Amino acid sequence: MQRKVTQIEEQLTTTEEKIKQIESKMTDSENLDDPVKLNELDQELQNTRQQQEELTEEWENVSLQLEELEN
């Protein structure tokens, strides 16, 4: 169970880094002038944030289960 928590934490870290990268791309001057590219990046950002929310929820659930097992 602890291994699962660690895996989710690693995935969350990767997802957070991806969000930062996308946000950075969205402020890049090349992309600011390209509405199609901005739209694509925005969609990718929304999808990644959704993934982050799902991982966070999973992490909370698994952490609670682990805590219950330890008590």
Automatic annotation (TrEMBL):
Residues 46-71 are annotated as: Disordered. One of its GO terms (molecular function) is DNA binding. The keyword ATP-binding applies. Keywords: ATP-binding, Nucleotide-binding. Residues 2-61 form the ABC transporter Uup C-terminal domain. This is ABC superfamily transporter. It comes from Tetragenococcus muriaticus 3MR10-3.
